[in-house]
């Protein structure tokens, strides 16, 4: 069963999605969650604290989806394809959460969770690195820092995802998957590995 805390976080997400952070009020969140004032402040010191907690929880769900996409059995091309598809699928299937994470959240009210955010980001990088490092060592993936690798894999996809999340473009970003995968493979996979046959993306 969902706890009162979970109810408040779910209500916060819905209200932030509808009204934005500035427009959202504690009263509106409490009303949607059917929670008392005392219950709200038992769990969260402020709207900003709830927003930061929500940010971390959604970030963890997103990271879990990315990490689950690859394992040691994936070759370079297949792994790149899976990472991109995992990102696109999560954004489309979790639109409200994705919009909060990528469109609504602001650095000025996530300052108090910055350390926890860095920890989560490090865990994501370490998990993906367990798949990536052996392929770099074997010469199948080009050597580059983890941040550059992610920018090449996720960065271009984010252009389409942000346009879709904001409503500027109604086209499902997953329709761009094949070209995004092809471009990412050229950016991070070693030329010799690209020529290999028998590996599907």
Automatic annotation (TrEMBL):
InterPro entries: DNA-bd_HTH_TetR-type_CS (IPR023772), Homeodomain-like_sf (IPR009057), HTH-type_TetR-like_transc_reg (IPR050109), HTH_TetR (IPR001647), Tet_transcr_reg_TetR-rel_C_sf (IPR036271). The keyword NAD does not apply. Residues 2-62 form the HTH tetR-type domain. Gene3D superfamilies: Tetracycline Repressor, domain 2. Keywords: DNA-binding. Residues 25-44 bind DNA. It comes from the Bacteria. GO terms for molecular function: DNA-binding transcription factor activity; transcription cis-regulatory region binding. This is Transcriptional regulator. It comes from Bradyrhizobium retamae. The lineage of its organism: Bacteria, Pseudomonadati, Pseudomonadota, Alphaproteobacteria, Hyphomicrobiales.
């Amino acid at each position: 069963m969902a706890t009162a805390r979970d109810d408040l976080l779910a209500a916060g997400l819905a209200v932030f999605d509808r009204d934005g952070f500035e427009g959202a009020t504690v009263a509106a969140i409490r009303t949607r969650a059917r929670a008392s004032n005392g219950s709200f402040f038992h769990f969260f010191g402020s709207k900003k604290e709830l927003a930061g907690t929500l940010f971390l929880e959604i970030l963890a769900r997103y990271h879990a989806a990315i990490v689950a996409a690859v394992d040691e059995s994936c070759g370079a091309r297949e792994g790149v394809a899976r990472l991109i598809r995992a990102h696109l699928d999560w954004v489309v299937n979790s639109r409200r959460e994705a919009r909060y994470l990528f469109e609504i959240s602001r650095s000025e009210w996530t300052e108090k969770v910055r350390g926890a955010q860095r920890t989560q980001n490090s865990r994501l990088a370490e998990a993906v690195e367990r798949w990536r490092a052996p392929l770099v060592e074997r010469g199948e993936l080009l050597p580059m820092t983890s941040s550059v690798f992610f920018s090449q894999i996720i960065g271009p996809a984010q252009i389409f995802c942000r346009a879709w999340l904001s409503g500027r473009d109604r086209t499902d970003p997953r329709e761009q998957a094949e070209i995004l995968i092809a471009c990412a493979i050229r950016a991070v996979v070693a030329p010799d590995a690209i020529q290999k046959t028998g590996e599907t993306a």
